[in-house]
Amino acid sequence: MRAIAAMGYTFSVYKTLNLPQNYLVFALVSALTYIIYNYNYVINYSQTDDKVNMKDRSNWIFQHLSQLKISIILATVISLFIITMIPAALPPVLFGIAPALGYTLKFLPEGKSPKQLPGVKAFYVGTLWTVLVAWIPLAAVGGAWTQKAVLLALACFCFIASSSNLNDIHDIEGDKLVGTMTLAVLVGAKNAKIISLILAILGGSISVLIGSIPFVIVATYVVIIVTTYNSEIKTIEKRIPHGIVAGLASLCI
After folding, report:
1. Which of 44, 76, 234, 242 has the most C-beta neighbours closer than 10 Å?
2. Region for residue 18 given its phi and psi (left: phi exceeds 0; alpha: psi -120 to 50; beta: otherwise)
3. What is the pLDDT of residue 116?
4. Residue 86 and residue 82: Cα distance in Å, rounded?
């Protein structure tokens, strides 16, 4: 679903900025998203926090580990092939792929990973997604970083960081066990929810400023998710990803 959501955001970025759509970019963004998430799942499924926060997912990964590894290799081959056809996408790919793949690797002092840096997890994820759905698509078609493009990328960042932070609320228990100091761990569930709401409203305000109706719809959707979220009920993963909402809204408007 995340790969489809990334394509949805990419389509919305192209549509909002009136840029020519490059379907190879959709495939590249989708493949990179698949690689990043599944690579991190594979190397972390046996970790304490994943076992606590995502027990069902950890068990599923254990049962399908070989297939996942093969699919990651295939997605990598596809990505490399596409990059040879659109070399302009290479700089943002290189900029984003190393931090993305190193997201959970414990190479920092005291055996910590970037994911465990105090208060940065949601913003780290937001930045990586913005590279995927805004910088790569723009670079691939030679799009300029106009004021509208910058603001659109910032709106994407706000929506994604808001949702990432919200996800961290129901992961508090597992994150505390391994020392992952998310905003939710640092400031508590209630304050973390307020931060997510502020980010969603900021993204919505930017969307209004640039006149993007699809992104205003996304902002409304994210605000509803935040305000109705209950950390006791893990329903957020069952919702339609807002990247898909962005794509559908752009398709219809």
Report:
1. 242
2. left
3. 76
4. 6
The dihedrals phi and psi of 214, each to the nearest 5 degrees, come to -55, -40
Q: Is the pLDDT of residue 241 over 50?
A: yes
Between CA 188 and CA 171 the distance in angstroms is 12
Q: In whole angstroms, what is the distance from residue 213 CA to residue 219 CA?
A: 10
Which residues constitute the domain of residue 174? 2-252
CATH of the domain at 22: 1.10.600
Contacts of 66 (CB under 8 A, 6+ apart): none
Amino acid in the structure at residue 208: V
Position 233 pLDDT exceeds 60: no
Q: What is the pLDDT of residues 20-79, one digit of tens each?
A: 999 999 999 999 999 988 887 777 655 545 544 566 666 767 676 788 889 999 999 999
Q: Total structural domains in the chain?
A: 1
CB-based contacts of 94, cutoff 8 Å, min separation 6:
none
